[in-house]
Write a structure and sequence with these properties.
The chain is of the alpha+beta class. It contains 15 helices and twelve strands.
């Protein structure tokens, strides 16, 4: 135990003797370990944000999109075909036991006017169940009813951005807004929702009955998506299969024909949304790997210089009874000490950077304890791996030649 402690003391003295050189040597390790921690933190933060956003979509939600439209034998792209109808949404709700609510959605972007103020925003046509599906509570007022949907009533529920831009923060309940000359009475205000998975502001929205949207606002005849809620998360898979079967039957698709729609669960939506973060994580991992190799080479270089500078010291220790394994251990401890020092400094810097990015940048960064432990272990491994050759060279020096070295 005393010998091990003595080796650590000697290693600390050797590093302190050339403190600036030692700190510069650890710079590569600091960058590499910081990149490893940043990679894991960004990935963990993105994953947590996606999970939170998916939860905001509502519990046990399935989205049904129209398929691709063909033009001249060329696919225009998924979601471009007019294959979903209001009747499809009602059939999903009424004929599939696992489905408790369905809302056909039609979207458009329109200029909205109130008094002498106007604002360009998204107008969503939805059913009366939409807020229940999305678990989006109201701050004030009420949601429109099924009767108002059936009657294509001119009513609207507005998001917080609309309240701020058109009404300057005052209560808009009972006020009238105009879309393409159509007067709509504001009957409800949505609670603030924040950013969506795709980075858009969810509060910049007006929700009206889908019948009103189809007939008087959007000019469309088909739904752009159907929001479906299943009674329990455990029934998502069976509900997805039944939705597919029912829509294929309703659309009269032959067994050899592809679906003209797409059914996605929350998990699939989350997987799509995290694809970008995976690419970013991979790039950071590449940077981290290169930085760790550069840091390791720096440590090897400085340890070789140290062996040359301390050749006479090594010869004296060998002459008075030290063995090669003691010299090997001494230099191996010094290289590991340097690398671990860089790892500790990088952990502190990473924690500070994560806090600043989260606080000032608004980007979620989760500092993972596992990532910190792995990064610290990698820094120690780099010190051992790249310090072994200089340590081995020092341990094999001939005592007589070493004592003659000037």
């Amino acid at each position: 135990m005393f010998k091990r402690l003595f080796i650590l003391v000697i290693a600390a003295r050797a590093i302190r003797r050339n403190l600036l050189r030692s700190l510069l040597t650890t710079l590569g390790v600091i960058i590499g370990v910081s990149a490893v921690i940043a990679m894991a933190s960004v990935g963990e933060g993105a994953r947590a944000e996606v999970e939170a956003q998916v939860r905001r979509l509502g519990e046990s939600v399935i989205l049904v999109f129209p398929g691709a439209r063909q033009r001249g034998g060329v696919s225009i792209g998924g979601g471009s075909a007019n294959t979903l109808t209001v009747e499809d949404a009602l059939a999903l709700r009424d004929e599939i036991p696992e489905v408790i609510a369905a809302s056909p959605e039609v979207r458009s972007q329109r200029q909205v006017i109130h008094g002498n103020r106007n604002w360009f925003t998204r107008v969503y046509g939805q059913s009366a169940d939409y807020l229940h599906i999305r678990q989006w509570p109201l701050e004030a007022g009420r949601m429109f009813t099924e009767a108002e949907v059936f009657a294509a009533s001119q009513v609207a529920v507005v998001g917080q951005t609309i309240v701020e831009e058109l009404f300057e923060g005052t209560n808009p309940i009972g006020e009238t807004i105009r879309i393409r000359g159509l007067p709509l009475t504001v009957i409800g205000i949505l609670q603030r929702k924040g950013m969506s998975l795709m980075g858009s502001v969810q509060d910049d929205i007006i929700i009206i009955p889908y019948s009103t949207a189809f007939q008087k606002v959007s000019g469309r005849t088909h739904a752009m998506v159907i929001n479906v809620q299943v009674f329990d998360a455990a029934a998502m898979d069976i509900a997805q299969l039944k939705i597919t079967d029912l829509l294929r039957e309703r659309h009269r698709l032959a067994p050899d024909q592809d679906d003209d729609f797409t059914v996605q669960t929350q998990e699939e939506i989350a997987a799509t949304a995290t694809e970008t973060s995976r690419v970013m994580t991979f790039l950071l991992a590449s940077v981290a790997g290169v930085s760790m190799v550069v840091g390791g080479i720096g440590i090897m270089n400085i340890m070789l210089v140290s062996v040359t500078e301390r050749t006479r010291e090594i010869g004296i220790r060998l002459a008075i009874g030290a063995h090669g394994k003691h010299i090997l251990m001494q230099f191996l401890v010094e290289s590991t000490f340097l690398s671990v020092l860089g790892g500790l400094l990088s952990i502190g810097l990473s924690a500070l950077a994560a806090h600043l990015v989260d606080f000032y940048g608004g980007f979620p960064v989760v500092l993972s304890q596992t990532a910190v432990a792995v990064a610290f272990s990698i820094s120690a491994l780099v010190g051992i791996t790249f310090g072994f050759f200089p340590a081995l060279k020092a341990s094999r020096l001939d005592p007589i030649d070493a004592l003659r070295h000037e």
